[in-house]
Amino acid sequence: MTETRLNNRQWLAKFMAALVPGALLSFGAMAVVGTLCHTTGDIRTVSAQFLMWMAVLVWLALLGSCFLFRSGARAWAVLGGAALLVWGVFGVLTKVIMA
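^ Iron uptake protein, sequence as received from the core. Prediction below:
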């Protein structure tokens, strides 16, 4: 097995991948959890506060760990694919719940 070292190349692409698709991923996770918990849109409820703080913590975790990807393209592919997957799950959940 070859051993690869982490490097600082493509740091801007990795950071932008955590910034843009990472935000979409964290907001999608918030939407999925909110749909599963039947959260209302009232910002004063405990569940809405939990969802807002959860999205922030997920996004910060992605911003901190985005530099562990081997390349910027891989970061964009993984985070973008995960965001598409989460929003697809949200779309299916809303169709199932509305039916």
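The mean pLDDT is 92.
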